[in-house]
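fold-stage: in
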Amino acid sequence: MKSNDVLGLIFSNSCETTLTELTAHRTTASVPIGGKYRMIDFVLSNLANSNVNNVGIVAKSGFMSLMDHIGSGSAWDLSKKRSGITILPPYAGVSFANKIETLYQLRGYFQDADEEYVLISESNMSFSISIR
C-alpha cells in the first residue's frame, strides 16, 4: 500500500461528551495544546509525514476556530489544487448521528476521491505514527 493511495479522514468532534468544559464552543480537534498548537496538529502532521495528500475533516458543530486554525493547510503542505484539506460539515444543518451514518452520508466524497484506501482517525491522537 503506497501512502499516496490513502485518503485521510479525521473526526473532529471525538471527545465532546468527556471534555465538556473545553469543547463547549469548539471541536475537540481545535482544543489548544502548548500555546499555538491544536489537537488536530498531531494527526495532520502524521498524515503529511506519511505522504497522505488528501485529508477530509468531519466537523459536526463548533468548527469555526478549527477552520481558522487550519486555513489552507499550507502549514502541513496540504494546500494542493486537486487534493489537500477538505472540511466536511453537516449537510443542510442535519448533524451526523454516528460514525457509520457519517461514512454512509460521505459516500459521494469517497467515490470522487482518487485514493484506493481510507484511513480513519480521531482528532485526539497525540503521538507520532508512521502510516506506511
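fold-stage: in (second)
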Amino acid sequence: MKAFLITPDTLSIDAVEIDDLDGIRALIGFDTIASDAVGEAGDRLFFDEECFLRGASGRFQIDRVIPVAGKGVVIGTADDGATLRDVVTDVEDLRQRIKYL
C-alpha cells in the first residue's frame, strides 16, 4: 500500500510501500506505535507511542494533531483504522499541512 514516511530530521516526506503494521513499525523503528486521524478521508498518522519518553529527535505536527517526535507514517485506513489501504492525501497537500517544530 502507498504511504508517506515523514522524517523531521531531514524535513522530508517520502513515498513508501507498506504491506502491514510490521512495515510501519520497521519504518518508524519501534514496536510501540499509535495513530491519529489526519483529515476526513480515513488517513492516519502512525508514530512511536513513546516518542517523547525516548527523547526522539525532530518534531512535527500535522494540522492540530498532537506533535510527534521522530518519524511518522501517513497511510490510508478503513474500518476505523483496522484496515490499511493506500493513502488518499496528496503529498503536496500533506507538505502544506505539516509544521516542523
